[in-house]
Fold each of these.
Amino acid sequence: MIRRLFIIALFISSLCFSQEARLQFEKANQLYRDGKYQDAVEMYGQIYRNGFESPSLHYNMGNAFFKLNNISRSILSYERAKRLSPGDEDVLYNLRLANLRVIDKIEPVPKLFFIGWWDSFVNLMPSSQWAVVIIFLLWVTVIASAGLLILKRIAVQRIFLFLSVIAIFFTIISFVGMYQRLSDEKSDTQAIIIHQTVSVKSAPDDKSTDLFVLHEGVKVELLDNVEKWHKIKLLDGKVGWLEEEAVEII
Amino acid sequence: MPGRRVHSNPGMFSMIVILSLAFYCSVAYGQDVTFTATVDKNIIEMGEQLEITFELKGTKGGGNFRAPAFPDFLTLSGPNQMSNMQFINGAMSVSTSYSYVLQSKSEGKFTIGSATITANGKQLQTQPISIEVRKGSAQQGQRSQQSQQQTDISKQIGDNIFLRVVVDRGKVYQGEQVTASYKLYWRITLASNPSITKAPALSGFWNEEIEMPRQGGVTREVVNGKQYNVATLKKVALFPQRSGNLTIDPMEIDCIVQVQARRRSNDILDQFFNDPFFGNVSNVNHKVRSQPVTVNVIPLPIADQPAEYSGAVGSFSIESWLDKRQVKANEAVILKVKITGRGNIKLLEAPRVTTSSDIERYDPKIYDNIARQGDRIAGSRTFEYLMIPRHPGEQKIPSFTFSYFDVKKKKYSTYRSPDFIVAVAKGDELTQTYASGVSKEDVKLLGEDIRFIKSETTTLHRKGESFAGSTLFFIMTVIPVLGFIGVVIVMRKREKLYGNAVLVRNRKARKIARRRLLEAHRLLQQKKNEEFYTEISRALYGYLGDKLSIPQADIAIDKVCSVLLERNVSEDRVGRLSKVIEECEFARFAPSADTQQMDTTYSEATELISSLENQL
């Protein structure tokens, strides 16, 4: 009983906190509208540091950074927004605009067409929406199966059989999709270069040879970590090492 | 060409004519007018020169001279026309000659055709001359190049004038400087300053002429017990470009020397005046050649040669610096590298400077400052690398190296520059460059503004929280599954409670029949006939009883058949069924060991059950 009360108390308190975050968010939006981008950025940052996030928060923060001409931070924020809400058109549009200002043009390695289709299918929704879809489909499956058992008329049974098979199929697919989205959202293997210029080395060592140079805003995949060095992989498949502080994880 | 060789002495010409007659070939006689063709030699060597003279004697002038074609020879000069009038022993002789200098092109025997001329209203023609061209050695060619007269003068001049090439060292490293001085030694009177007619080719060397003082001092030197005047005509700094024994080609100069004229005629007067006392001095154009000199060039050691070595030899000092350390993006920075010292400055290659792709780098501009005084070439070469950092940030120009072979230390020396760091600030927005590969559509987009912020706050949630992995989600997924299981359980219970045994029997009929058939199959293999037939009949009766809802006690073959026919099962099938059942009944009481019969019964029973399953 005490335990239950404790959980309720926690829930209410978190609601209050999020209430405060909401007020801050609105305030920050007002700052943005007034053109005080620096203040807006700080306010958004505070919300984020307090442990809250939403696609809109990151999106707005990205916009504020963009207005401040801080391209790398703006891309970082858009990428975070995209991660939470992969299908959001506004996010994708602004991210594309910001990426145009990135100096390095990195051509991604083309994916196999069906993998591309699958990825864009999975990215239709964030994981929480996939979860809702799964629950919906599960209900459809259960109701259809129950109908199949209870109702004896063959014509009706056929419809229910068909319905339940389809629903089971899509439930499985949605589970896979949700799992993939979830792991994407939880992953910390993607980062944005925030230093203006950074040399990518061939080994985690200051003295090793420079392989190529990257500029702010480039998205990289983190493969490995040795001391203060990250092993990175670019979208076009190039691999190298760079200092930890040059990147920020999305 | 006598006209060129003899300047002011008419006597010379007669001498030439006499000498020419020694090789005289054919003469076309006129009555008092002759037109002849002569060559200085009939047999020449490959590449050697040949002089052919067509001479008209006995009359003054002729017209319409037509020379033959010389298809097998190169015409070096000609026609050189010359008129001559001479009194020999009181008789006047007049002659006009046309001469050509030819050079042989190929070996073999050739014929030079006839020349024609019109004189005193008659057309005169020379006889064709045959020439043989032999394969010759270069040495012979050289010797024979000098014409007869020249050897004569040479004999007279002898070693009174010669040209020498003096090198300051005979053994050098590849790329190390050798200074060659061309010195003229003479102890006869020179009528004019010598002029260089054939400059040495100096193949295998890169050369740089050393400036000589305007007024070259004439010194005196004793050679072979004779005192000579010595003047240095030319000084060249040579840098051997390959190893081995390199030869400095001879130089040839023309100088006009004063010689005692000698006449080789039968004229007593001439012989009398030939005495040097009378000093019948003439100016003769004389060619002087130096002897080739060989320089031994040692290759540079390869063993410890630095990778970036690019051929510099000498002793140098290197400096490098940047003109600015702080710039805005798109502003130029200049990296200067200055190499000072002795050696072949002009052959110094620019050190390889690398930069990241962020810095646009241009080929270096080269400024030379070379002193040619003294025997050594010295000076400095400055490389100016123009660089334009395109992007802000700390840009590094990595250290570069310059290696040279130090002649004094006899080993390689490497200069390593420091790393240069340029702090690049953000440039003007207008000049900001965008990487290539931006599509037209993208360029249009560049001008666009970003979309406006969103104000919805409902999605604001704690970081890292997602409905997908939450407990709520799991509860919500488990609920329908549990519900479904519940439905199934409830239905089972209802079936049992309301004793819908018929339904259960019906559902289970096939399963039981199958189990019995399997048992029968086992018995068949064990050859237990009686049990086999019992099992088959139980399987059939049991199945039909369950399917048709006939209580086991009431089951009889007639009843079964009638019910089956009622349910539209074909008569044929019903007949087969009753046959099998009868067979079983019969066999149970009169066992036989016919295994084949048993097999047929078994497969018939199996077939019947599966076909009935489809229909009932």
Amino acid sequence: MRSIRMLTRLLLPAMLAGLTGCAALPDMSPYTDATLQLRSTVVAGGHAVQAGLESAAASYEAGDPAARQIREQAAQFNQAWRARIDGADALLAYTEAVTDLARSGTQGDASARKLADALGGLATGVGVVLPAAGTVATITDVAAFVYGHIAAARAAKSLDQALHAAQPAVDRLATVLSQDLQASLDILHAARRLQATAMALKFNEETAYLKTLARERKAIYGKDTQTPADEQRLRQIGELLDATRSWREPMEQAQADTEAQYRLRIQLIHATQAAVAEWAAAHRSLAAAVRENRSVNVEALVQATQEAKELVRRLRTL
Amino acid sequence: MSEWDSIEGFQEWSDKLGELLGEARDAARNPDADARFAISDRLTAFILNSRPNNEAIKALDDIAARASQDLMLGVLDERLMEIVGRTAEWLQVAKQFSEQAASAGAQASAIRLEKAHRVAQSLTESVHRLQELRSSLVDTDDPEFARSVTKAVETLQKLRAQIERIT
């Protein structure tokens, strides 16, 4: 019996390689992980735009028509962005399905054994007298081994068809998402400027006071010679500027925080754009790799999504 | 020296605002948002730099603020409409991916011989029930029924052999 098994192991691989074309299936898990991350980034990108609009609205006095209009736009954006999240969910479901398809090709041996067990149970049930246990094991081994190769070939063919059939949708999604992200960038830029205008009006008196003092100090510094009166005035200006610290520093801190949040949101959208482009390119590479029976490197995609992930983490901590 | 340093008095500030509003009108017609962002920045800079901060100058600041807001609210509206306009396409793409996912899932299931496995399990269960039924029949029961049960078990046996062959 051992010699039959040995012979099977020696002869069948060559025969099956000829029949199935040595199907090699790529490890799709990094691609699935990257797609999951891309989905999170799409969600976070939507939140970032929403937060940018809400910050802009909050800069206005309550009841200001501009604030109401911005809030309405934020609600409209939120509703429209849900379709993007649904799209990203469908994309993830697709990626998981093709990953599972690739995995099914590597599990042919186990699938055949599972079925053999079930059929063995059925045979006992209907009263079929099975051959001796050793013979059954050998038959199962051979069947599982053969089916392992058949499954790999079938999965490679199905995966090839699935990846190529999906490529137009992948390209379309990448284009549409990229356009949406570009529009989102403009929304964030506009929201930031609305905020800046509102803040300029809100702190108009304070800013004017600071600028007046700064201008006077600059004029004194610009003189060829300074009189004792000039020196006295410079000291006074210094004291006046010090006295503004209690309200100036919180105001400047708030402005710096707002600017930092804006920069981070912009960075996140840019990172998402890069990740989407890498994702579509990686899909194309995977499709080609499966067709040409070679390995594929999705490191650029993994790196792009990692960068986006880090930005999402930083945004959450703000 | 910035563009604001040499401006003095209400008239000069008013003239400067007139110049900026003219540029804002041109930018509003430009589909590229960057031109509008640039003029919005200058209108805000006008608010921050105009002086002295008396009522007349503040009135100019309010005009500058409104112009900047109108430009930016216009950008928001345009971009939002673009996004909303693409929503139908998203729904279509999502549907395509869902279909692709279902198709790939079905193929994976077929490769795993899941259907055949389920059929085998279901048949095994049926056989056990039939065997139980056959053994519970006594001689006094309908012999025709007993023969039908035996035939059913034989049919299942044939079916099993066929499953083995097709998979």
